[in-house]
Amino acid sequence: MVSLFKFAFFLFFYGFIANSAASRVIELSDRFLDIHKEGQWLVMMYAPWCAHCKRLDPVWAHVAQHLYATSIKVGRADCTRFTAIAHNFKIRGYPTILFLKGEQYYEYNGDRTKDEIVNFALRLNGPPVQEITKTHSFHTLKKDRDLYFLYVGDRSGLLWDLYHSTAHAFHPHAFFYQSHPVIVDKHAPVESTPVIFVYKENVHYNFTGHNSSEFNYINKTLHNWVNAERFSTFPKVTHGNIHQLYMTNKNLVLAVIEENAVENIASDMLEFREMVESIIRKKRDKYHQHFQFGWIANNDLANSIAMAQVSLPSLIVINTSTNHHYIPDDEPGKLTSDAIEIFLEHIRNDTAPKYGGKSILVKIYRMWFETKSTLYSMWNGNPVLTVILFGLPLLFLSLICWGTFCPDILDAGDDEEEEDTNNSHMKED
Ligand SMILES: *[C@@H]1O[C@H](CO)[C@@H](O)[C@H](O)[C@H]1NC(C)=O
Ligand SMILES: *[C@@H]1O[C@H](CO)[C@@H](O)[C@H](O)[C@H]1NC(C)=O
Ligand SMILES: *[C@@H]1O[C@H](CO)[C@@H](O)[C@H](O)[C@H]1NC(C)=O
Ligand SMILES: *[C@@H]1O[C@H](CO)[C@@H](O)[C@H](O)[C@H]1NC(C)=O
Ligand SMILES: *[C@@H]1O[C@H](CO)[C@@H](O)[C@H](O)[C@H]1NC(C)=O
Predict the structure, then answer these.
(1) N or C: which end of the chain has fewer CB within 10 A?
(2) Element (H, E) at 221
(3) 326 with 219, same domain?
(4) Each residue of 73-93: pLDDT tens digit?
């Protein structure tokens, strides 16, 4: 009753009805702090001046539309006006997407696309492991979910406990289900129970790491297995998900190609991508354990990994535990799948030339490269502003240095605000 009253109060004073007529997104104010623990909220924290937020706006409207029929309320809060919200949730960058559920809140770090954000909310909406009680639910499940984990067996025992705790740890990142052999029926190849599957690209693969009875051993193998299996066989790699892919501790094998603004790909690029994809599709058993394949359509991302201008199309392999990267010697356009396989073997036996890494020198070089690229793209975007931003301070600085003895003050960072918050997100992942 009390909560109903509060809710009505909120409606009345902060008029979100007017807003939701045009879009399903609820415009929130400081009053949100009184009610955010009631129900489940998906909230975008934004600032009016932030360009990334503006780009997210249409996506956010779609997300709200999509989740309208669920119990999740979708809102957004202008953190420059309602600073108490920003303060309460310790917002450090814009946009920040949060899922709120009672006392808990989860920050979204993936790709800012409708499907990814909706899936994030739907996962957190339910318990970490959802039970499937009807055979025909599997039809819907296979249709709606590209990837999910499934435990078949009773909700008791060591494997169940570990499955549940792993599901809890990966709740924002994957869908986890549980069912019984009779219900699963022909949908998954159950031979004995308990068994854990991952479903992707129409196939159920089982977990085979529980041939031991040692708790820590199974926990570790299950944890690592879920962590590595939660990606599709050949995902599109972006700024949003690459940090998650780095956690797999596998080698990332990335086809770098060019995609235009409306996501069209030229036929030679497409051919190259298909050739790389065919390797993992045909020889999954051989490569799956040590290599995660994928493709990038983002030149900036590829350049910043290679710390150089990469040609298109090309292939780049990253050892995610050491941060080394490998680039084949052959001209990328002439690469064949056989040549790539030999290249991958050289990487495995440590005879391929490697670049980058985690040393201090590489880090400095990387910083210099990033600064250079940022400046270059700022210059391309708006030369006048760039000159004003960097030219004027430099002019003053040189005037000061002219007259006085000049100490080492030239290395002060002068990054753009938005850039800065982005980077801090990336580093912390
Ligand atoms: C898991 O898969 C392997 C290979 O497909 C199979 O030999 C094994 O029996 C399966 N285990 C279970 C418990 O289904
Ligand atoms: C379980 O099986 C894997 C591969 O089949 C093997 O490497 C591992 O040593 C086995 N673990 C135990 C504890 O038997
Ligand atoms: C299982 O392993 C993960 C990762 O190594 C760890 O974070 C977690 O605490 C472990 N769980 C249990 C119940 O020991
Ligand atoms: C990454 O490099 C390290 C050191 O060379 C090596 O031990 C590790 O196996 C490599 N990772 C993969 C997935 O091959
Ligand atoms: C590494 O693998 C390549 C390709 O299979 C092979 O030609 C080479 O002899 C191997 N090197 C070592 C040191 O095993």
Answers:
(1) N
(2) helix 215-229
(3) no
(4) 999 999 999 999 999 999 988
